[in-house]
Amino acid sequence: MRPPPQVTQSFRRLVNCLPASSPLLLCGDFNMHHPQWEPFLESSPSEVAAEFLELCTDAGLTLVNTPGEITYARGTRERSCIDLTWSKHLTVSDWSASVSPLSDHYMLTFTLHQAFKDTIPSAPPSAPKTFYSWGKCKWDLFIKDFDAQLPAYDYKKQSTGIKAFTRALITSYRQHCPRGMHKDGPRLWDDTLMEAERIATDSKARYLQLPTPDREAEMQRTRSQFFLLLRERLRNTYLRRISKLNPGEPLAWKYISGRKRASLPPPTSLLLGDGQHTYKTARRAANALNRIFFPLHPSHKAVGFSKGIKRQNPSLGIVSSSLFGQQNNNESAATTSLVSSTSLISEPQNNYESAATSTSVSSLSSSSKPQDNNEAATTSGLVAHLHFPLDAPFNRTELLAALRNTPYGKAPGPDEVYSEALRHISSKGLRFPLRCINHSWTTGTIPAEWRRATIVPPLKPGKSPELLESYRPISPTSIVSKVAEKMVLKRLLWVWTPHPHQYAYRSMRTTTMQLAHLIHEVEHNRNHYFQVNLPKKSGIGNQLHYRPHRTLLVLVDFSKAFDSIDHRVLSRLLANIPGVNCRRWLRNFLCGRYAKTRVGNRNSDRRPMLRGVPQGSVLGPYLFSLYVHPLLNLLNSFAGVTADMYADDLSIIVKGQSREDAIPTANMVL
Questions:
Q1: DSSP class per residue in 479-499
Q2: For tag attachment on the chain, is the N or C end more exposed, with fewer CB atoms within 10 Å?
């Protein structure tokens, strides 16, 4: 029976759409007979088989099968070679077909060799990931060794001190923590199952060689034993894994959703391109990705922060309070009701916990680089200009709280500092990062090590892996920087609360709550009636009717929302933060940031980050939430309009008496 015409046309388009120079391997059960691969065929080939052979020959495909070698066997007589292997620009050797107990089709095995090295770039050797068995680390020896190597703190040589601190930490955990975090789990295909498969395969091969009733019975018996053992192993594996799942943890859903998901191909195994150019080396692909992630445009200029008086914007949710008192520079401090007394942030109890401070409190950077003023000042001279407790130096309690909130198992940043090692350093070792953080906090100087990032681009779900636009600029940053960001974020949330219609980055808020709010608005509009006078059926007079309101939903997905944030607009919003240290640190956090992209083990050139917030950081999502705060205020100010956001996904609910009545309102809002 001839296949439908659309099948032949679809196969022809599939073969012809590939570039002529691209390598191609085509395998499958084609279910066609031809003397080209079946020399023992007695009848003439069908028109479909002849057309298929002509199509493959015109496409430059070469048959790899050994002519006459059986690939399909059923019963005592049915033998054929319907499983074919075709190749183009590839050298295939060691092709063979062996009996399989799982199917009537044979198992095809072969070896691929690269035919044209100019057209198939080899993937650069990637550095193997290093895993540490933190549970077997000798922490007492680690602490002793680290304390012996710990450098003395000198705020004048902070960059050198941070490098020495990082070097001591890495040297200590490499020496006392064994490698090899992942241990071999229970094997599904163990020796018992392999032996059962071998016996079933041999018995089937003997039966196909000489079909007799005894050999057929032996084949059925060994095959049933093999299947029974295989089903038992699969069932036990399933029950063991299900028993470890906890419905209260997101890991359970990740495990279940990933059961049928294929692993994503690494960028090094693909020919990346942008539609016009194809990048054959990892270095060129990394540079191309970096140009897309951080474009240089004439309008993208470095932010120059002004030294003017802060402008208070009440629409940002920054609540004014008299807790800090009125300041000399007319800056009113703000805090939330969570801060009930200044005892929440106590003065440093030890000398090593006091930070070097700057004599100038209004020294906002006038260039793209954060100001580095290392002149020490007395704490009493700084109190007169700062908003306590918001601007107070951090203490050891806050550092320990931030470390406890830093989860295990996170990828390290460019400095290769793991959270597991950082959380096990001694009290003496904690003094150094606390002093570095306090020095950065009081002077507004962000260390260069905290502003560098190496992007390892993951593939966006459902996107083509061969296009550069399909990758996200996720950058693992320094763990020490993330700890500092957590401490600063804690202070920021004292005086600023994310918009109530922003459901992301807030505790006790989920996507389910946003959906519940959407359903509530729709049902509320349906139950809210309006009056309308309609003519009676008799044509005499009007009659009062009640109609429910309609709801129009507009869903907006911003393209590259986190990467397109204007630093100038965000800096003007940050100017409303009451604390001098807090405001200056957050604004300088965006300055002087550089990033490079890694593909395999090849790095791109370094490029400045002139727009957007650093993805992968702790403060990045909250700065984005602050950036869209005025937008949510504006949208919710329209009558009959409710706007909600989850991260960068915006939903606008428009209430109207009819669809035609709601559409103009939606167009006006957009």
A1: HHHHHHHHHHHHHHHHHB---
A2: N
